[in-house]
Write a structure and sequence with these properties.
It is a single chain. The protein is α/β, with parallel strands linked by helices and 296 residues long. The chain has 3 domains: 1-81; 126-157; 166-274, 3-Layer(aba) Sandwich (Glutaredoxin). 57% of the residues lie in helices and 9% in strands. The chain is built from 7 helices and 5 strands. β4 (241-246) and β5 (250-256) form a beta hairpin. The protein is elongated, with a radius of gyration of 48 Å. InterPro entries: Thioredoxin-like_sf, Thioredoxin_domain.
């Protein structure tokens, strides 16, 4: 009875435990197999990626080496052609050679005449028909550089186009002598600053007006640290600004003379030069726009 049931229960429990252990062992083997497969797959992927990266790096380095060699060859070729062209255009004339270490020795090589140097330059020069396109381009570059140098020299020696009736005043004493003591001519003054874009834009109009009215004295007063009190004392609110002085009445006009307002300023100047103001039929008011000089 009781002992038989206990023996059966122990046997069944032992069998079940053994079965579970067998199953656990099998499961562990299966997990190990999957782990090894996954590890080998990852290792193969890493090796493949590493090999691909290494191959790409090798190709990149190889291309860089080829490109650097080609660029070096091109640079050396360009330098050689440039030196050849410079020697063909500017032949080296051999002058005297006097070695200082040998006091008595003096070698003079001035026997080469002008005709010989010309023959050498002609012999070293390559005909244009036989030059390659690259050589022709280099020759044009050298010739253009020579033209630029000549143009710069001509610009430096070229006379100024500033009219003769324009003067530059920088101090208060000069302003008194040129403007205040003028008793014969009408004086037009332009107050400007070198850094002012508007002043630079209207400068050609001012010079054109000076050329148009040769009997009028035109004066330019730049803004500097030394004459700041001059502009303040004359009530110049901004630049560019203009004054018109009459030899008998003194200061008669003051207004802004930017590119927008300078035509009106020139029209007012013309009335003082001619001594008359046009009066349209039926007009009783001023034909000029009144500009508030304090506005800025």
């Amino acid at each position: 009875g009781y002992k038989t049931d206990r023996i059966l229960f122990v046997g069944l429990a032992t069998k079940g435990t053994f079965f579970l252990l067998v199953r656990l062992c099998q499961l562990r083997q299966v997990i190990g197999i999957f782990t090894r497969i996954q590890t080998s797959y990852r290792m193969s992927n890493r090796q493949r990626i590493t090999s691909d990266c290494t191959e790409k790096l090798r190709k990149h380095n190889r291309n860089n080496m080829v490109n650097s060699r080609q660029s070096n060859i091109k640079m050396i070729t360009c330098i050689i052609y440039t030196i050849t062209l410079l020697l063909s255009i500017y032949p080296i004339s051999v002058c005297s050679f006097a070695p200082s270490s040998f006091g008595a020795a003096h070698v003079s090589l001035n026997a080469m005449s002008t005709s010989t140097s010309l023959q050498m330059s002609r012999s070293t020069a390559t005909p244009t028909e036989e030059m390659s396109p690259f050589q022709l381009r280099m020759l044009k570059l050298v010739q253009n550089d020579k033209k630029r140098v000549v143009d710069k020299k001509q610009r430096r020696t070229r006379p100024s186009n500033i009219p003769s009736n324009i003067q530059v005043v920088c101090t208060l004493d000069e302003y008194k002598n040129v403007v205040g003591l003028e008793k014969e001519k009408i004086v037009v003054v332009r107050f400007y600053a070198s850094w002012c874009k508007s002043c630079q834009a209207m400068r050609p109009f001012f010079y054109r007006a000076a050329a148009k009215y040769p009997n009028v004295s035109f004066v330019e007063v730049p803004v500097t640290e030394k004459n700041a009190h001059l502009h303040q004392g004359l009530g110049v609110p901004s630049v560019p600004f203009g004054h018109i002085y009459h030899p008998e009445a003194g200061l008669v006009e003051e207004q802004k003379i930017s590119k927008k307002f300078f035509p009106q300023f020139e029209q007012i100047l013309e009335t003082y030069v001619n001594g008359v103001c046009e009066l349209p039929e039926g007009a009783v008011e001023t034909p000029y726009n009144v500009i508030d000089v304090t506005e800025q």
